[in-house]
Amino acid sequence: xxxxxxxxxxxxxxxxxxxxxxxxxxxxxxxxxxxxxxxxxxxxxxxxxxxxxxxxxxxxxxxxxxxxxxxxxxxxxxxxxxxxxxxxxxxxxxxxxxxxxxxxxxxxxxxxxxxxxxxxxxxxxxxxxxxxxxxxxxxxxxxxxxxxxxxxxxxxxxxxxxxxxxxxxxxxxxxxxxxxxxxxxxxxxxxxxxxxxxxxxxxxxxxxxxxxxxxxxxxxxxxxxxxxxxxxxxxxxxxxxxxxxxxxxxxxxxxxxxxx
Length: 260
Description:
260 residues; mainly alpha; two-stranded antiparallel ribbon; 4 strands; 66% helix; flat
């Protein structure tokens, strides 16, 4: 096989292609969940309580693909080391900034909408709604802002905890660092994204006056965390399989090559 001059060997090229796939899945999923974000909430159920009235269990549609990002960073951490995993996380931060820039630019450039002179914004329709782009833009701005803060804290927590458990167990107990890192970071992520989203007014459609605000926010944090918790446990077997397969395919011994 003829190699490009930048590729030192076939094994090196193979490693870079797999890294590109994992990083691409991570970054593509991140961009998708930020755009989907708060556009719709999925109602998982309700519970009647004597003290707090009706409590609603719901997750934003943007949460659905989120567990995949932690599987990708765990695989990158295991196979390529902490430095590469952190690099991908930083690229994700830049990607969030790029999404915000395009959303802002798309809204300030002149279009074909009728402008309301009083607000200098596009006029609302008979249902009181802005044009579709501006509706999506409003929710996406909120989702990206909330997710950027939660993302930075959660992803770096995930990478740090993964390597903390790896050092502590001397490279053994793969299940522990996979689940231990994700479960801690998911709690950080769920708490941050719910609190920030509430602060910027992203839960107007599902919050009620029946129960104290703190209780409702606590239920939303718990719901999002349990949703991610279940997927974190479910991805243990795929993580084991991919780690075993890719270690052989890429000729990598993670414990030997990334010993710290």
